[in-house]
Design a protein that fits this description.
With 206 residues, the chain is of the alpha/beta class. It has 2 domains: 63 residues, no CATH class; 128 residues, Rossmann fold (3-Layer(aba) Sandwich). The protein is built from 8 helices and 7 strands, in the order αβαββαβαβαβαααβ. A 4-stranded mixed β-sheet has the order 5-4-6-7, with helices on both faces. It is elongated.
């Protein structure tokens, strides 16, 4: 990434477009004068990208898609509406992602307000996906709420397929519908919309 960033900056463009955070960090390290437009930021203040949302005080501008209680709470509220009777939800987060760590408190508070029990399950790499589903099953999770970070976006197909396998064992008639929900959720932007894995009982089976 630093090599690619250097090539772009050396072209002396009028504007740079960089996303997500890793790409943005690479170009920011090389220029403080070229305007940088970014998307997909989850909490630019937390990561030190800008001083504040209202007054960035940097050569960076763009959109902020998450990072407050209202948005995290709305996603959990949508999940609760999509899966009537759901009470226990597993939250998949990237243990190495700073913004994922911040989201844990937001999701926990929102889940409490909605009467949901939230189990936080950290992942560090793709090798841990199967174990994460097994942990969710042991904890009796009825649905899955996934971070929208780059790690989960990269592995969205694996997560959706794994979710379908668990759902199909409980009710094969609805497996395709639930896989569609999962895929559309990830396509909407890294699992902006959580996908349900069960109606009123756990199907996050191992």
């Amino acid at each position: 990434m630093p090599v690619l960033a250097r090539e772009l900056v050396d072209l002396k463009p009028d504007v740079l477009i960089a996303a997500p955070e890793s790409s943005l960090a690479a170009v920011r390290a090389l220029t403080t004068t070229v305007p940088i437009l970014t998307i997909w930021l989850r909490d630019p203040v937390l990561t030190g990208t800008v001083e504040s949302i209202a007054h960035p005080a940097q050569n960076v501008t763009g959109t902020w898609i998450a990072g407050d209680d209202a948005l995290v709470g709305k996603r959990l509220e949508l999940l609760k509406e999509a899966v009537p009777g759901v009470m226990r939800v597993a939250l998949f987060v990237n243990a190495a992602d700073l913004t994922d760590k911040a989201m844990i408190d937001l999701a926990t508070n929102a889940a409490r307000a909605l009467g949901l029990t939230l189990t936080v399950i950290p992942l560090r790499d793709a090798a841990g996906i199967e174990a994460a589903f097994a942990t969710a099953a042991r904890d009796g999770a009825q649905a899955l709420f996934v971070s929208q970070g780059p790690f989960f976006n990269t592995h969205r197909a694996e997560l959706a397929e794994r979710a379908q396998r668990g759902r199909a064992r409980d009710d094969p008639r609805h497996a395709d519908r639930f896989l569609g929900l999962a895929r559309r959720g990830f396509a909407a932007g890294g699992a902006h919309f959580p996908f349900p894995l069960a109606n009123t009982r756990s199907s996050v089976s191992s």
